[in-house]
């Protein structure tokens, strides 16, 4: 048995494999395999993915204009009217806009001394109040005194805008729930530098009368969006989201074919929520910020502090343009010639399965692989 094992090792060591060519005339399988490879390579890969084109990435700029008037009942003030200068005049960053949907208001604040909002259920004493102390949760700078906050609690006194903002939860339902009916006009200008091609989402055929009437909900190319529809298409409920706010992404995709025969360059819009929506899963839910309106009463400056909750809409533009390039076509053809190696693999599989009878398949296998013994004795 040891001699047999040793002989097998010597045979394997002294043998080698080389390519043997045989011309197999197989009309059905040969034609099927070659047509399949050509259809896959040319039709599905080159034409579908436009591998014959040179591509360039989009360069973009975006502006947004919100329209709408809200009627709401503010606590302590009654009915008020807010327009776009009131609810959308803040946080107009690059490629984004903000709409206020809910408010917590602290009226008639003046510079002075007042008790800080208690942070703990237990009372504090003078030794807990450090003169000049301040941290990120403070509404002012501590004086070092301990004063009464109400009938049940004592807290540190601070110097700042008094009375300090109370820790209240946002009203439910949201005070500006009517913002669901507001509209926004998004103007997106794009450019593909490699082709010196410029376009915008307000297409040349769109007239002034068209823009006055169109809505994106009814026309996929219309650049005017109702805020409620944007939030709904992102899979959210506007009334629920308006209470604490959040962030919605508006995606504009440009996939442009600049060849004359197949010329097409139109925007495609999609929407999604970008922040964590479950309040019980995050320490700081929604989206909010503070601003103030100032006035002077009897020579003393006063202000009304607003903690504004709302929805920030981030507009993200991406895409590419392609144009026929002879160089790209030659490179693609050269790189895809290797796909024809798949023809042999496909033929071997077809012959052994369905194209021919088992006897013919076995005959093909025997002729394809042939062992040549060495005439010299080992």
UniProtKB/TrEMBL annotation:
Pfam families: P2X_receptor. GO terms for cellular component: plasma membrane; postsynapse. Gene3D superfamilies: atp-gated p2x4 ion channel (1.10.287.940), atp-gated p2x4 ion channel domain (2.60.490.10). It is a multi-pass membrane protein. It is found in: Cell membrane; Membrane. Disulfide bonds join 114-162, 129-156, 214-222, 256-265. It catalyses: Ca(2+)(in) = Ca(2+)(out). ATP binds at residues 65-67, 183, 288-290, 307. Keywords: ATP-binding, Cell membrane, Disulfide bond, Glycoprotein, Ion channel, Ion transport, Ligand-gated ion channel, Membrane, Nucleotide-binding, Receptor, Transmembrane, Transmembrane helix, Transport. The keyword Cell membrane applies. The chain crosses the membrane at residues 25-48. GO terms for molecular function: ATP binding; extracellularly ATP-gated monoatomic cation channel activity; purinergic nucleotide receptor activity. One of its GO terms (biological process) is calcium ion transmembrane transport. Receptor for ATP that acts as a ligand-gated ion channel. Belongs to the P2X receptor family. PANTHER family: P2X PURINOCEPTOR (PTHR10125), P2X PURINOCEPTOR 7 (PTHR10125:SF13). This is P2X purinoceptor. The lineage of its organism: Eukaryota, Metazoa, Chordata, Craniata, Vertebrata.
């Amino acid at each position: 048995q040891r001699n047999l094992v040793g002989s097998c090792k010597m045979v394997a060591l002294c043998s080698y494999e080389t390519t043997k060519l045989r011309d197999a005339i197989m009309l059905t399988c040969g034609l099927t395999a070659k047509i399949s490879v050509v259809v896959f390579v040319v039709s599905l890969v080159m034409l579908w993915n436009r591998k014959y084109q040179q591509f360039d990435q989009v360069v973009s700029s975006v502006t947004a204009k919100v329209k709408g008037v809200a009627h709401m009942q503010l606590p302590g003030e009654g009915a008020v009217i807010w327009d776009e200068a009131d609810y959308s005049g803040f946080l107009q960053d690059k490629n984004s806009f903000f709409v206020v949907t809910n408010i917590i208001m602290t009226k008639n604040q003046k510079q002075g001394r007042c008790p800080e909002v208690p942070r703990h259920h237990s009372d504090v004493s003078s030794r807990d109040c450090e003169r000049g102390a301040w941290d990120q949760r403070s509404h002012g700078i501590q004086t070092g005194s301990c004063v009464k906050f109400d009938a049940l609690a004592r807290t540190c006194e601070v110097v700042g805008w008094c009375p300090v903002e109370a820790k209240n939860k946002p009203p439910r339902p949201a005070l500006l729930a009517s913002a669901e009916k507001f509209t926004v006009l998004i103007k997106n200008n794009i450019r593909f530098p490699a082709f010196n091609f410029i376009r915008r989402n307000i297409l040349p055929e769109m007239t002034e009368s068209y823009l006055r009437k169109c809505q994106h909900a009814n026309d996929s190319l219309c650049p005017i969006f109702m805020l409620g529809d944007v939030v709904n298409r992102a899979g959210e409920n506007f009334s629920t989201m308006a209470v604490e706010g959040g962030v919605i992404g508006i995606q504009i995709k440009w996939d442009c074919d600049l060849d004359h025969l197949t010329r097409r360059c139109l925007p495609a819009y999609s929407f999604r929520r970008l922040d964590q929506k479950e309040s019980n899963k995050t320490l700081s839910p929604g989206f909010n910020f503070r601003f103030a309106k100032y006035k002077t009463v009897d020579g003393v400056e006063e202000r009304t502090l607003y903690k504004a909750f709302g929805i920030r809409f981030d507009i993200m533009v991406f895409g590419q343009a392609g144009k026929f390039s002879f160089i790209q076509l030659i490179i693609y053809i050269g790189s895809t010639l290797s796909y024809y190696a798949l023809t042999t693999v496909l033929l071997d599989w077809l012959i052994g399965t369905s194209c021919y009878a088992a006897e013919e398949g076995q005959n093909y296998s025997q002729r394809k692989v042939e062992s040549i013994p060495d005439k010299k004795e080992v």
